[in-house]
Amino acid sequence: SNVGVQKAYDNARRNVSNAASQATLDFEKYPDNRPSSSYSSSEATAYSETYGALSQAKSDYNDGKGHSEARSDYTPRNSSAYTSEYNNFVNATSQAKRDYDDKINNSSYASGSQAHEVYSNAYGNMSTAHSQAVDDFMKSGFENSSSTINAPAGYYPAESQTYVDAYRAMSQAVDDIRNKKNANNTSYASRYKDDYNNVYNNFKSAYNDGMLDGAIGLKITYGSYASNSFHSKVYNNAYSFESSAVSDAMSKATNDFNSNKYNSLFGSYSYSQNEYSNRAYNKVYSSLSFDVRKAQLDFGNGSFESSQDSNTPYKSFYNALSGATNDFINGISNDVSKYSLMAKSIYEEQYNSLVKASAQGKSDSINNNGDHSSDYAYNLSLKKVYDDAYNDISTVNVDGNNASHEDKNGNDGKAYNVLNDFSNGINRDISADGYRSDYSNIENGFADGINNKKPVSSSSSYLDGYNMGKDGMSGINHALEVNNSGKEVGNLSGKTNAFIIGFNGFNDGFKAAINKSSKNHPNKGPVYGIAYDKGYEFGLTKLSNRSKGNSSMNKPIYVYNTKVIHAYANKGMHKSNIVKKYNKKPLGKLNELKVVSKCKGKNGQILYKLSDGSFINRENLKGLYYTKSSSYNIYKVIAKKGIHVHSSSNLKIQNRIDFWKKDHKFRVQKVVNVNGKTRFYMGNGQYVTGNKNFVKIDFNF
Predict the structure, then answer these.
(1) Residue 36 vs residue 417, higher pLDDT
(2) Residues 208, 220: Cα–Cα separation, whole Å
(3) Among candidates 523, 499, 513, 510, which has minimal Cα distance to 450?
(4) Rounded distance, CA 465 to CA 451, Å?
(5) Distances (CA, A) of 513 to 168, 534, 546, 551
(6) CA 594/CA 112 separation, integer angstroms
């Protein structure tokens, strides 16, 4: 209502506002040196606070301390001034990034303004970051993947992104060259398209020539690139990479062949997408296949080719054939422990062929089928075994090596085979010469063999019984492993008749027990009877365990929790029974839980019993050990204290042969299981743990 007071108020308010506006103008011109002013007290305060808010916004932005809102002690006007100025700086930097990427340098901000200064500085800093990326890439970019790029420390976000964008474009060009792809830079901004094109067009020929020369191990075209440091580096990197890849492929082919990976000779196998590595792999595999066939042919002809004396694979295969023949002749049953899997396969093939030839010789002699030794003329070792068996059966009448004996008390004049009679559970009441003594010798030998005792006689009839007992027990043990641990049955075609009877007898007894059938069984001979009884007893044990709701494990399993879990004192799983809490932990610090058995809880859920006697729910658990090699086959040590390399899979202290520090990377050939724990085998007799607290898959090798 007082006109004079109102007018004074309006004048004061206008003067304060003008002072704040002048502070904004002065800050743009003199950001580092505030000019003096002759304002009244309130006007001076407004000027000072506004100038201070703007100055603070610049300081915070330059220090990377940006605030989404101004400080709480600012007035609304000063808070607005701070936020507006800070956002101007942010927008200026963003615009500088867009312009730099598109190769434009045309600031829309007024010359001399603070936003223009920020724009110019950001643009220049991004140019520096880009140059650094190009320099770093030329030094080491050919070894790095485009998915694992980090800018150096100290860069602001826009500068870091510029560094990464440039590095990734150049790295992608190398990846495309390496993978034989056409140039494809459509996903990059204009500036980084130039980076991509520069690398792709300038280095493609150097890289491809390096790869080709590396595959054959000769630097044929290196002279074309030696004068240019960058081209030389690309060539050498490609040469080294491919040379190593081909060497690994050749080594892998040898290992795969010796381990009989494909269970066959020859063939064309897809080892790698790398053309040269794949060729090298198949060439080595085929060469080793030829060595096998050559060794078999020469051994069959009874001659070792002296020109092959330095050919290690040929010699090992020849020795396997020779070893199988010597073992068979000396009565050693299929000893393959000292051979690689491929040599083992060759050994077993030869050994089984000898068994068949010997059996054929015996059969032809007993049944008067005539001499068929000419069927084995292609292989001297098989022919010799056939001849020995044929002639031995025809003449032996005292020791009774599968001998036939005529029943002199009978009227039919039939000849009976003692070993066949014993095997079929037949004991004839005849007094033929040697029948009773042979039967007794076979019976005694069988008892020693089935009970895994050492042989005490060298008579052929005793040894026939002994081998029947040993083979029968081998069949029983194989059936036990199949039914108890889930082992595959495998190919039984090369097994002896006693082995097959033992295997089938155990299975028949086991099934009878599980089906709660009678223990009685038909008389199919001593091997079948013993095998059936053992299978039946094992089946009863299985049923007993099931009725108790527990399932013991052949081997413990080791797990870790992926979420928070609790261990309980008993199967009740009540809160009051909690004895321990296991928090979720990161790789390298996982909880290691040893499971010794499975059981059912009171509500029917499956529980795990731990080695300390407590119980846990089996949900939210994963295996602590790697159970198979990744498709990459590359792993890295993550244990802070490193790990030891051992010469044996038992990882005992006395077997340590090397030490690998944290971050050491290695290639795995296969995974070996040792009592529920796994080991990685790298070849050359080297083993390390497969525990996820010590090693992990490395995807960036």
Answers:
(1) 417
(2) 12
(3) 499
(4) 12
(5) 67, 11, 13, 17
(6) 71
Residue labelled with tokens 């916004």: 57
Distance CA 347, CA 474 (A): 19
Q: What is the pTM of this model?
A: 0.38
What residues contact 135, with CB distance under 8 A and at least 6 apart? none
pLDDT tens-place string over residues 189-229: 999 999 899 888 878 888 888 888 888 888 888 888 888 87
Tens-place pLDDT, residues 567-592:
988 887 888 788 899 999 988 899 99
Closest-CA residue to 588 (of 658, 628, 642): 642
Give the helix/strand (H/E) hosting 683: strand 677-683
Matching residue, tokens 């839980």: 593
* H helix runs in 106-228, sequence order: 114-140, 157-178, 190-216
Asked if 693 and 639 count as a contact pair (C-beta separation under 8 A), the reply is yes
Sign of CA pseudo-dihedral 312, 314, 315, 317:
positive
- Assigned token pair, 165: 């964008």
Per-residue pLDDT, 355? 83
Instruction: Give the number of other CB atoms < 10 A from CB of residue 637.
Output: 21
- The residues, any chain, with a CB within 8 Å of residue 24's CB and separated by 6 or more, are 50, 54, 81
pLDDT tens-digit map of 316-339:
888 888 888 877 766 665 666 777
Strand partners, 680: 671, 688
**Can you tell me the mean pLDDT for 180-189?**
87
What whole-number distance in Å separates Cα of residue 505 and Cα of residue 525? 10
pLDDT in tens, 7-51: 878 877 887 777 777 777 778 777 777 777 777 777 888 887 778
Query: CA-to-CA distance for 299 and 354, rounded, in angstroms?
Result: 13
Phi-psi region of 260 (alpha: psi -120 to 50; beta: other; left: phi over 0): left
